[in-house]
Amino acid sequence: MSAMLLPFIRAYQTNEAEFAFRGRVFTFALSHGLFSSAHIDTGTRFLLKVFSKKLDELAHAGKPMPQTILDAGCGVGVIGICAASVLGPNVHVRCQDRDELARVFTCFNAENNHIPRSLLSAHTESLLAGPDNVRWDMILSNIPAKAGKSVLEDFVDRSIALLGPEGRVLVVVVNPLASLFRICIAQVGTLLYDETGASHTVLMYGQSADKPLVSCPPCRGDFWQSHPAYRRNSSVYFMEDLSYTLDTIHGVADFDTPSEAVRVAAKLMRRLKKPPLFSSLLIHEPHQGHFPVWLVRFEQWSTADAPRITLSGRNVLALEVSRHNLSPFAVDLVPALDISPQIVSSDGCSGFSAIIAFPELVPRADTLAALWEGIAALLVPDGLALITLDSSGAERFDRRKPKQFRRVDDLKRKGFRTLAYQR
Question: For the chain, which terminus, N or C, has the lower number of CB atoms within 10 Å?
Answer without folding.
Answer: N
